[in-house]
Amino acid sequence: MKHRIVILGAGYAGASAAGRLARRLHGDDVELTLVNAEPDFVERVRLHQLAAGQDLRARPLTDLLAGTGVTLRVARVTAVDVDRRTVALAGADGAPGAELAYDTLVYALGSSADDHGVPGVAEHAHELAGRGGALRLRDRLAALEPGGRVVVVGGGLTGIEAVTEIAEARPDLDVALAVRGDLGAWLSDAGQRHLRKVLDRLGVTVHEHTDVARVTASGVVTAGGATLAADVAVWTTGFAAHPIAAATALERTDHGRIVVDGTMRSVSHPDVYAVGDAAQADGPLGNPLRMSCASGIPMAWQAADSIAARLTGGRLPRMPLAYVHQCISLGRRDAIIQFVTADDQARPAAPGGRLAARYKELVCAGAAWTVANPIQYPVRRRRLTAAPSVGHERVNSGEAPAARGVRS
């Protein structure tokens, strides 16, 4: 009987894991199934572009998986039973009550927008955590007349990329950014200076040290009681792990992320691996890897190579996942490349401008290409051993690459 490997979620992490497993393992020995709620691969790092009115290239998962032997199931995951080793499905390719059994599970269901319990966010704010939210924001922005007011809440990477993209695409709008602390506080001095210069050039009003307590149909209300008028509020204050894991016996953090070891295997259930935003993994200095494409793709490589090693009796990859830079788009014609330490702390260098924008575009395009080409060199599909290893801990000489700043 074939060893059944099920991958849940086809974002950057899940799709990369599926493709890499298909290239590592022999098709006569394994059955690979990728489950995703949509038939297309969504370039999440470009959703601010979609919201601002740009068209993104369609990337059907059937095209990305062609020739790999991976079976695609377009369905929603409604539950995971880690004791029975089954996944419950619903939707187009998963009739109500449908179950999918597995021997090894790769959990990559990602994350959604985190409203942090702020009243009015769900009812009145737009989000950019998924394609549906980006399309709804796109329609709402397109309906705004000149002079319309847009307030983006959240000064992280998503908020900065969204506010600059909107301001550049719609210079006729009154665009503002509300930030809880200092603008770009995690950037180096050079990065902060360039960010402020671009926001000023684009006419974005920045409200620093502004904690939003409530969102209404006509604006956002700060903790101090002031109101920032808005025809459109965009909520970009971080992400929350997909809730499916919360209903399982998997060990999780207080924020719902699955706790994994250095091979991306669950510390509580050895037949489950978790990658991307759904997992809590440590960087080289014990720092938690942040939710990002820069973390997700290398985590997927690590998990796929670890699964293949344990099933074939090979050597486990134990390369630390380290960062190099954060690439931040500031519209289509500007960007910041913030160089960072291995544990994601800003270094002094942060070049910006048109050349940085071109580099950022190459990074985004490269991330999508990597999903379709998760191994960039010839590799032999290995056969499974009669008794797959569960705890084989020999260290690989370095086959699995460390994380390199694919996405900020």
TrEMBL record:
<keyword id="KW-0560">Oxidoreductase</keyword>
<dbReference type="Pfam" id="PF07992">
    <property type="entry name" value="Pyr_redox_2"/>
</dbReference>
<dbReference type="GO" id="GO:0016491">
    <property type="term" value="F:oxidoreductase activity"/>
</dbReference>
<comment type="similarity">
    <text>Belongs to the NADH dehydrogenase family.</text>
</comment>
<dbReference type="InterPro" id="IPR023753">
    <property type="entry name" value="FAD/NAD-binding_dom"/>
</dbReference>
<dbReference type="InterPro" id="IPR036188">
    <property type="entry name" value="FAD/NAD-bd_sf"/>
</dbReference>
<feature type="region of interest" description="Disordered">
    <location>
        <begin position="388"/>
        <end position="408"/>
    </location>
</feature>
<protein>
    <submittedName>
        <fullName>NAD(P)/FAD-dependent oxidoreductase</fullName>
        <ecNumber>1.6.5.-</ecNumber>
    </submittedName>
</protein>
<dbReference type="InterPro" id="IPR051169">
    <property type="entry name" value="NADH-Q_oxidoreductase"/>
</dbReference>
<keyword id="KW-0285">Flavoprotein</keyword>
<feature type="domain" description="FAD/NAD(P)-binding">
    <location>
        <begin position="4"/>
        <end position="304"/>
    </location>
</feature>
<keyword id="KW-0274">FAD</keyword>
